[in-house]
Amino acid sequence: MQELTHYIGGAHVKGTSGRFADVYNPATGEVQAKVPLANVEEMAQAVDIAAKSQPAWAAVNPQRRARVMMKFVSLLNRDMDKLAEALSREHGKTLPDAAGDVQRGLEVVEYCIGAPQLLKGEFTDDAGPGIDMYSMKQALGVCAGITPFNFPAMIPMWMFAPAIVCGNAFILKPSERDPSVPLMLAELLEEAGLPTGIIQVVNGDKEAVDAILDHDVIQSVGFVGSTPIAEYIYGRGCANGKRVQCFGGAKNHMIIMPDADMDQAADALIGAGYGAAGERCMAISVAVPVGEETADRLVEKLVPRIEALKVGPYTSGKDVDYGPVVTAAAKENILGLVETGIAQGAELVVDGRDFSLQGYEDGFFVGPHLFDRVTTDMDIYQKEIFGPVLSCVRAKTYEEAIGYAMDHEYGNGTAIFTRDGDAARDFASRINVGMVGVNVPIPVPLAYHTFGGWKKSMFGDLNQHGPDAFKFYTRTKTVTSRWPSGIKEGGEFNFKPME
């Protein structure tokens, strides 16, 4: 069995804690590797190397740091298929979806090539008599990121690319469920010319996380995962004086107005609700049709599309719609919530509980589910299922529909499907959700805008990627400067006034 490593000081390093986690093949249910779980001493070693390497990297001018990112983009494109296959093997995503995971991270790296412009300070001459003022954006030092299993390429790049190009060193603690791609990314960064010690990948569990939060050298921490863990990391990190941004759970609503193109809306819901087996923080898990007729038409369109979904391993070809969920525990949790939904009175229109794939009976596959007539007091509405389960909550009016999204504790993403520009404009203006789609089901912003939810979906004051990333990974220093005027010593060359 393969034994994975950490990546510390420019080399693959075996774990010394004696603790390991199993890495599964989600399609077969078999353990395919074991990954070491770092202890406090191993984390401290990585931080020490990063801290010693960082000052020289920060002294490199932004243009040369950007050139490393240029080369990194080239290497990502070169190894795209290799990265996607490794990602699919451990996560279970289809190959096109895995390549998309890498691509969306790559786009943030491309944005970071603009570091010379994005790191420019400000200057004011003659702010006072003989006084100039200017600001500088300077690196924090050593930064850290704690990333989730569902995007093992994209989210690490969302964090480490801007951090590194700003002149920081970076400690990445990836998910122990699919750690191979983060290790591969570290290798590619150093192949691109990144100095040894600037990127460190330290695998681990809560012990490693707490070591990050408590280490006084680490200046900032980024996290993506569940809301309870986000709250924990945010509270402990801030209490230790760190700059922290944490992104938590989601329950994303899509409002379907009576005038919407119902085929377009149904197709959008299929991709947004069932893609990646629903394991996306931006997945649409709640459809809110406005009016009974709209709801009936929508459900009628959805059922045959859901029943036609092809579920299977990534090795079955590019026409597979989605693969397994990541672990047996995830599958058990999803099916448990499905049973709860039935018990609480929701109408199970498409039942995927008996789904089984010949030859892959031990895999973590979950069939697609569709609930109708879901109410807001049900567990399947209140909780993030993170699986291929779509709930239909019928609303009588637009105001009732928008109220569902606004009243929910999560506020990551939302969408409206309509032909009415006035309704769309009102929705975008009023909704208390961080990312909004108008006839776009998964409104993940492009790299030069920022990604971030509201309410209990995000803790912190700066979003991921885009301009906010360059603010998060730098601190501003403002200099007030005065130089004495005139010649204080030596000869005088000015004409004296006549007396």
Tell me about this structure:
- The protein has 499 residues and is an alpha/beta fold.
- It folds into two domains: 2-248 and 457-481, Aldehyde Dehydrogenase, Chain A, domain 1; 252-438, 3-Layer(aba) Sandwich (Aldehyde Dehydrogenase, Chain A, domain 2).
- It is 38% helix and 22% strand.
- It is built from 16 helices and 23 strands.
- It has helices spanning 40-59, 62-78, 80-91, 95-112, 115-118, 154-165, 180-191, 206-214, 227-239, 262-274, 292-307, 328-343, 379-382, 398-407, 421-430, 467-472; strands at residues 2-3, 6-8, 11-13, 20-25, 30-36, 123-128, 131-139, 142-146, 169-173, 199-201, 218-224, 243-247, 252-256, 284-289, 347-350, 369-372, 389-392, 410-411, 413-417, 435-438, 454-455, 458-459, 474-482.
- It is globular.
